[in-house]
Amino acid sequence: MVFAVLMLVLGAEPTFCEERPSKGTPASVGRPAKGRVEGAVRLTETTAVRVLPKRHRARCLSWATPRLIAALERAGREVQKAVPDSPALGVGNLGRARGGSLAPYSHSHQAGRDGDLAFYALDAQGPVALEDLERFDGALKSEDGKLKFDVARNWALVAALVSDEAIELKWIFVSSALKDALLAQGRKSRSSPKVLAAAERLLHQPSDAPPHDDHFHVRIRCTQAEREGCGD
Ligand SMILES: [Zn+2]
User: Which among 132, 100, 101, 95 is positioned nearest to 114, based on CA atoms?
Assistant: First the structure.
């Protein structure tokens, strides 16, 4: 922690690469803003998921409970099944090997149940695998105007996450403007009423945090087995 603060003062981004997970039964302990993780696993990059290379890969914040890791891999594959030629799902910060504070990056992400996901995006040629998080406005354009929010693939991602019965989502934080665009896409593509209702309930612009116009922040609930030491 002292090291992290020092790095920040020096202008470098803190990294957590020396950390290793605890052994034992995987469990989320505590709450997203004050918690830790037992038996965390690191995201393995595949054709379906990758850690954003520009800033996030160097941080070594790719740890989470195994069920969140597995759900991200499944969601990346589902998008590729639903929409041909989809790039890998871009993953930003998950958490530390044993959980705990992610300062200066985030208040939450401490208990292995949070993840930041890049949006799928299009340029003039087609789908692009983003190197970093990218902000999109209500007109679905990036700040430099060169990229468009890929509403079909981002909806496929939301549909995959809310339909995944191995996890129970608590929230998918995203800006209100992007939520509206996603739900419109869901109706247009005739998604099931169940999926639409779940997306309507779970997509949410937080009132006490940035508007999330540059990523989805996914949070899953504790399992029944974790319930005692784990708080949603
Ligand atoms: Zn986040």
Answer: 95
